[in-house]
Amino acid sequence: MTQTSKNIAIIGSGLVGSLLAIFLRKKGHSVTVFDRRPDIRTIEFSGRSINLAMSNRGWKSLRKVGLEESIREIAIPMDKRAMHVYDKPVYYQNYGKDGEAIWSISRGILNRRMIDLAEEAGTQFRFNEKVWDVDLPEAKIYTGETVKSAWKEYQFDLIFGCDGAFSRVRHKMQRRSRFDYSQNFIDVGYKELTIPPNPDGSHKLGKNSFHIWPRGKFMLIALPNIDGSFTCTLFLPFEGDISFDRIKTEEDAKAFFETYFPNVRKEIENLTQDFFKNPTSAMVTMKCYPWTYWNKVALVGDSAHAIVPFYGQGMNAGFEDIYQLDELMGQYGDDWERIFVEYQKIRKPNADAIAELSYRNFMEMSSKTADTMFLLQKKIEKHFAAKHPDKWIPVYSRVTFSDRPYAEALAIGDEQEKIMQEVMKLPDIESNWDSKEVEKTILRLLDNKKAT
Amino acid sequence: MTQTSKNIAIIGSGLVGSLLAIFLRKKGHSVTVFDRRPDIRTIEFSGRSINLAMSNRGWKSLRKVGLEESIREIAIPMDKRAMHVYDKPVYYQNYGKDGEAIWSISRGILNRRMIDLAEEAGTQFRFNEKVWDVDLPEAKIYTGETVKSAWKEYQFDLIFGCDGAFSRVRHKMQRRSRFDYSQNFIDVGYKELTIPPNPDGSHKLGKNSFHIWPRGKFMLIALPNIDGSFTCTLFLPFEGDISFDRIKTEEDAKAFFETYFPNVRKEIENLTQDFFKNPTSAMVTMKCYPWTYWNKVALVGDSAHAIVPFYGQGMNAGFEDIYQLDELMGQYGDDWERIFVEYQKIRKPNADAIAELSYRNFMEMSSKTADTMFLLQKKIEKHFAAKHPDKWIPVYSRVTFSDRPYAEALAIGDEQEKIMQEVMKLPDIESNWDSKEVEKTILRLLDNKKAT
C-alpha cells in the first residue's frame, strides 16, 4: 500500500535514526533529523563505544533498503570466539554452522556511513540543535540553545524518537499518566581501549574472531576494525576489590593488566593513556510502555528498549524495529494509528525478551563461568545439538542467525533449560555426560514437551 | 546527639513534608517548605482523595513528636471490615485482637492540621512557588512562574524531596547515571464519591467499620469522616466490559450502581454529580535507588517509594521513614552523609516489601476473591491463628499493628504461604479443613521451618 507523503521529524542521528530516515525517504516522506550533538562526520569519536556485532536481523533490515553491500564493505566477519582463558593456550568456539558469522563494525564508522547514505537519499539533518520540548498531540517540537533561551517551534505530521536510552521524547511521554517505565543499571561499567595495527597495517590478533579474556567478575573483549586495529572493551565492576574504583593511577592500571591480562598487555600500547582519557560508562536496561502516542509519535530503538550489550543485539533489535515498521507501513498505508498500535504490540514482547536474554548473559558471565556444573551443562547441550541439529537449536543461534521473534527464542530456551535441569540430576552425569542414556533422556524429554 | 542548626528546604507540603518539618524544627533547624500548589487550608479539596487508614506505624511517628492526641481528635477508629457481599446480609471481620483498630482520617483535614502544627512549630511555608530545578551537589533550588520566566535561586544546607510520586527532586536525581527507577501503573483506576451524613449529622452506615463492597474485578469502599459523611472510593478497570470507559452518561452511572451496588445506591445522593465532577485517577508503584545525594538531598515518602493503596500503608510508610530519619539524627548528629546512607539502606528493603504486599493485595482482590480454594485457605489460616495466636500472626497484623520491619512481615508471610500450599494438598481438605490432622500438619510444618 502506498502512503501519502508526510512531514516527519526524527530526533537523533544515531544508527537507528539515520536508517529510519532512509526507509522513510524510500516511502516518499519528507524527513528532517535533529541532533543536539555535532555532525559525527566532523568530529572525533567519543572513546566510549563498544564495537557492534551486526547479525542476521541487522543485515535483513539493511537488505530491505538495498544497503547490505555498502555496509559489508566496512564490516569484518567473526565466525568464532577466541577464548583467552588465563594461563592456557587460546582456544576457539564457532558461533554457528559453517559460514555463520557475526560482523564487527566500528560504531563511529557505521554512523558516518549511514548519515552519508541518509543525506544522499534526501534527508535533511539539523545538527547542534537540541530538542527541549515536544508537544505530543500536536506533533510540535521546540529547539533552542538552553532551556531559558528563545525556542524555535517546528510543526510536523509525525515524530520519531530515536534519541537513545535517555530519550527526550520518551521523557515527555513519561510525564503522562499510565506510562510504565523502568531503568536499571548494572554494577559493572566499561571502558574503551585500543589495540593498534601492526606497522604494516595488519591485525595483531586473528581478525576473524571475537576475542574474549574472561576473568569471572570482569572481562576484556576485542573486536577487529578494518584499519587493522581492535576496539577493546574492559568490563569491570564500579566498586569492590577488583574494580574501576581501585584503579586510580597509571601504576594501578599497568599492574592490573600485568596481573590479569599478561598476554595482551603489550598490545595495548596506549593502555594507560586510553584508560585515563576514555570515560568509564554505565550500562542500563530501560523498558517502557506504550511506545507510541496516538498517530503522532513513536519511539524506535534504544529510546523504547535499551539493553545491556552482552548479547550483541542492541543495534540489531533497533534495526528490526524499523523493518517491522516498514512492513506495517506497507500493510496499513496512511492509517498511522494502526501502524503504531501494531508496531508496539508486536515489538514490545520481543524487546522484553532480548532485554531478559542480554541480562541473563551478563549474570552468566559474572557468576557462572566458574561453575563446573554449568560448564558441563553447556558441554552436554553442545554435544547433543551437534548430533541432532534439527532437534536442538541453541538460543544463541535463534537470536543471532534467525529472524524468528526474540520472545520465541526465550521461550524455547526456557524449555531447553527445564530439560537440562532434569538431565543434570541423572546419576553420575559427570562421567556419563556423553553417553547414549543421556542422549535418550533428552530425546524423551523433548518428545514429552511436544506431546503437551 | 545534638545537631548543629541547618538551613533546610522541604519540597512538598503534603503529609510527609509537614510532619518532617515538625521533626526538624524540634531539632532546632530552620525549615522552609515549598509547594507549587496553593495552601490547602485556603482551597477546596481535590475530589481525588482516598481516606487514610492510620495504623500503628503512623501513630508511633506522631507520638514521637507529641502529636498523637491532637490527631486522634480528627480520626475515627475502625476495628473491623463490614463486608457488603452481593445479595447477602452484611457481615463483619475484625481487623485484629480486641482493641486493635485502624483509624479513618480525611487526607485534606489531616493535611490542614499538619500544616497548622508545622507553622506553630516555626516552619516557613512558601505556597504557589514551583521548584523548576535543583542543584544537587550545591543544595540550591530554583523556583519561578514558568520554565522560561526569571527564576529565583535559594541556597540551603539540605534539601528533602517530599513531593510525592511525581517528585521533581527525584526527577533531577533520575537524570544522573546509575540511578535505578521504575514506575508501573495498574489497569484499575479510582474515583472519589461521597455518602453525606443524615440530617441529624449522624453516619448513614456503621461508623466504626471499613465498608467494602467486593465485586471481583472492581469494588467500592467507604471510610467514615468526623462530620458524619463517608468518603467512598470506587476502584474499577479503566477499560473493558465493566469499566470507567463504559460509564459515559448519567444513565450509565446510575445503571451501574443499580446493578452492582443496589444497597448503597440511594446513600450516594450526589452520585452522578460526584461521578462526573471528580476525576478518575491512576495508581502507580514507583521504586528508585539511591534515595539520597551525598549529604545534601534525601527523598522521603512517596517520592522515594509510591505504592498502590490496597494495604492502606502509603502514609504510614512515609511517616515511618521520618521516624527512622529522626532516630539516625539522634545517633549520628551532624554526620549527614552517614544519616542519609543508613536511612536509605534501612528503609529501601522495607519500602520494596510494602510495595510488593500492596500489589499482591490488589492482585488478590481482583483475581482471587472468587476462588473457593483461596477462600478456604484464608479460613484455615484464620482458624489456626485463633487457636495458636503465638504461632501464627497473620501478615496483615504484622504490617498494621506491629512496628517490625515490613521486609520481615513479607518474609514470614512467604513462609506461611509455603506451609499453606502443603496444607491445601492434603486429601479431602475441603471437608477436613478444621480437623485435628490439619492443625497437627501446620504445627509440624512450622516446627520444620524453625529447625532449618
UniProtKB/TrEMBL annotation, chains A, B:
Keywords for this protein = FAD, Flavoprotein, Membrane, Monooxygenase, NADP, Oxidoreductase, Pyridine nucleotide biosynthesis, Transmembrane, Transmembrane helix
Q: List the catalytic activities from the record.
A: L-kynurenine + NADPH + O2 + H(+) = 3-hydroxy-L-kynurenine + NADP(+) + H2O
**Protein name as annotated:** Kynurenine 3-monooxygenase
Known EC number: 1.14.13.9
One Pfam entry for this protein is FAD_binding_3
User: Which function does this protein serve?
Assistant: Catalyzes the hydroxylation of L-kynurenine (L-Kyn) to form 3-hydroxy-L-kynurenine (L-3OHKyn). Required for synthesis of quinolinic acid.
Tell me if Transmembrane is a UniProt keyword of this record. Answer: yes
Give the pathway.
Cofactor biosynthesis; NAD(+) biosynthesis; quinolinate from L-kynurenine: step 1/3
Highest taxon of the lineage: Bacteria
Domain FAD-binding, by residue range, is 8-355
Question: Has keyword Transmembrane?
Answer: yes
| Gene of this entry | kmo
Q: What does the similarity note say?
A: Belongs to the aromatic-ring hydroxylase family. KMO subfamily.
What cofactor requirement does the entry state? FAD
Note the InterPro entries from the entry: FAD-bd, FAD/NAD-bd_sf, Kynurenine_monooxygenase
Q: Where are the transmembrane segments?
A: 7-24
Please provide, alphabetically and separated by semicolons, the GO molecular function terms listed in this UniProt record.
monooxygenase activity
